[in-house]
Amino acid sequence: MRTMPPEKILTVDFAQKDACSKILPRSPLLSSYDANWDIVRLDHHRQPGYETPEHYCQQHIITISLEQSVKKVERVFNGKLQVEQISYGDVVLLPANTNHLSRWKSEAEFLVISLEPALFTRTAFETGELQGLELLPHFAAPDPLIQQIGLALQSELKSDSKGSRIYIESLTATLCIHLLKHYSASSQTIPQYSPARGLSPLKLQQAISYIQDHLEQDLTLAEIAEVVSMSMYHFARLFKQSTGFAPHQYVINCRIEKAKKLLTRSEKTIEEICQQVGFQTQSHFTNVFRKLIGTTPKAYREQVKI
């Protein structure tokens, strides 16, 4: 059984808005706290040279370096010191309740992802990855997938929509599975599925019908998976095997296809169409439409009605 750190060590709870103020001198440049991401938190930092007090976090913490040049950092995990030469994209994993401190001499820029242990445990349960389950601390090293997920979360946070819930959930699920596979003490293997299997025709139709009937809502991966009585992890994998699209990609495509029909066959305003197909802002709708169709909704309507 893991012993809890002594009381004299600072406790940091990333469920609190000002969590970082206990260990860092500046507030984050950007935070998902106010975006109401329920299952994951992202903070973008630019901090001066500093030495953090010794602390432990109630959540699993991942930091991703955004440094454009190599930076020297001294880091201590549970009393073990390591001097790191950190480059852009390097990732550090700090499991919940791990004693930690770090020090660096010049300004540093990085992302911090925090995950609730309960979410990680639930993912492990859904994948059957339970025996000996424990995340292990990892000093700085490249991990292109975690870097990509962090940058994708940052991009969503910067967008006008503040992030689609189904996309945030999909990224977080992928991150948890990756941590289970590569950063866990468990020796079991996460089950793989043959692409030939996918969802049954009935479950696929149930999922698609639910998506089509609720496009105006901020759909979540959890609620679609519940319709077919599956875990988020298994549903997302099998849905992609069946359709060729991740659930969030499929939802976006459905929204744009419905928008095209409304632009062609109705006199609704673009703002009304935006709301009817589930985009939170008109600017986000326009950006996604342009990316997929190659033109704006207004220009598309003018073209098809000539």
The mean pLDDT is 86
Name of the CATH architecture of the largest domain: Sandwich
How much of the sequence lies in strands comes to 15-25%
- Rg from C-alpha positions? 22 Å
Distance between the termini: 71 Å
Order of helices and strands: EEEEEEEEEEEHEHHHHHHHHH
**In one word, what is the shape?**
globular
Could you name the CATH class of the largest domain? Mainly Beta
Query: In this structure, how is the largest beta sheet organized?
Result: 6 strands, antiparallel
Low-confidence stretches: 1-7, 187-196
Give me the count of strands: 12
Count every helix, treating DSSP H or I runs of 4 or more residues as helices: 10
What name is given to the CATH topology of the largest domain? Jelly Rolls
Query: What's the CATH H-level superfamily name of the largest domain?
Result: Jelly Rolls
Description:
The protein is an alpha+beta fold and 306 residues long. The chain has 3 domains: 10-182, Jelly Rolls, CATH 2.60.120; 201-248, Arc Repressor Mutant, subunit A (Orthogonal Bundle), CATH 1.10.10.60; 250-304, Orthogonal Bundle (Arc Repressor Mutant, subunit A). 40% of the residues lie in helices and 20% in strands. It has 10 helices and 12 strands. The protein has helices at residues 117-127, 144-158, 165-182, 201-213, 221-227, 232-243, 247-265, 270-276, 282-293, 297-304; strands at 10-12, 30-31, 40-47, 50-51, 55-57, 60-65, 71-77, 80-86, 90-94, 100-104, 108-115, 138-142. Strands 2-3-11-6-9-12 form a 6-stranded antiparallel sheet. A hairpin with an 8-residue loop joins β2 (30-31) and β3. α2 (144-158) packs antiparallel against α3 (165-182) and α7 (247-265) packs across α10. Residues 1-7 and 187-196 have low confidence and may be disordered.
